[in-house]
Amino acid sequence: MKKTTISFLLLLFTFIGFSQGNKVTQTGGKFDGLAMTPPMGWNSWNTFETNIDEKLIKETADIMVTSGMEAAGYNYIVLDDGWMAKERDKNGNLVADPVKFPSGIKALIDYVHSKGLKFGLYNCAGTSTCAGYPGTRGYEYQDARFYASLEIDFLKYDWCNTAGINASEAYATMSNALKTAGKPIVFSLCEWGDNKPWDWGKPIGNLWRISGDIYPCFDCEFHHEEGNWSSWGFMKIIEMRKDIRKFSGPDHWNDFDMLEVGDGMTNTEDKAHFTMWSMMASPLIAGNDFRKMSKETLAILTNKELIAVNQDKLGIQGFKYSAADGMEVWVKPLSDGNWAITFVNRSDVTKKVNFDWKKQLIKDTDFNLEANFNTTSYKIKNLWKNKEVGNTKKAFIANLASHDVITLKLIKI
Question: Which CATH superfamily is domain 40-310 in?
């Protein structure tokens, strides 16, 4: 009888212990304050996929500094999928591909840091990465310690090969692992928006992808038959998610994917693409080959006026104000009571813009902001032409070519 009672008590305490353990909330979460404005930098994937090596990365870092991109705000060099060897070492540690990176990954990171830049790496929440390299599933804390020892500054964390895994739990585990490892690292959730990361991502990551991969086109869908999935033109991505802008802000950004500027669209479309990413307060992560970059591409990527819209300290994502006959008007509240207004011509023919400010009332219901042009006047600056073009007391009139944009900054008088 006594033995039975003791066994019952042991079983009861064991059950209580497990129950209490299940109720304990993991401490940790992201490092706060690392991305108070949308991150800016470069990522290897769009142009090079897994065809990367230390020579390419060093040259890219060099050009980021000498071209003026660093001065414009770009400071992250992010090495995407394919940097690893196909197998972990005997202790289960990740290993950089010794052929691609003969000097070792730490030496490359130190080189990038020596240029005054920051360095990022890639991995995946699944059992393997999208390109078939070792994933982090089951190695979260081990990999986090490895990243901390390398002194990286940014981790892009993908979502391939994750069958049966809960997204919010998987990303929370890695976020907590990074926090436990102790090195402040920007955590980029590349979950594609399938599990609505805007609902749960704020305490976990500094930014989160809201769509599948981008494709270098204005408004297309590119279907990958081999994997039965699609990539999207930048205007498709802009329209893909509804009512999520209220979840974005300083240190918790909606990420519309990497830039395709300089990757095959026309200069006009590149300009529109860069404008819309700036209006949406999306991270500005270039994906082109810097070594072949034209002066036109560089001018777009380093337009300080559009970058200022993107990096505005208020941190509010823009929204579509109106649309008619292929012409759209997008607006973005800025600090100090100012606004950015972008006219986008989505049609295939030139359109005339005739915007009578006195007949417009812009209301941002998500953030309780308003632009009433009958009670407040604004000076107007054309941001792509970098010149003042009057004020809101007179209608704005202009011709706008197909797939082109006009972006104005309204400055309170």
Answer: Aldolase class I (3.20.20.70)
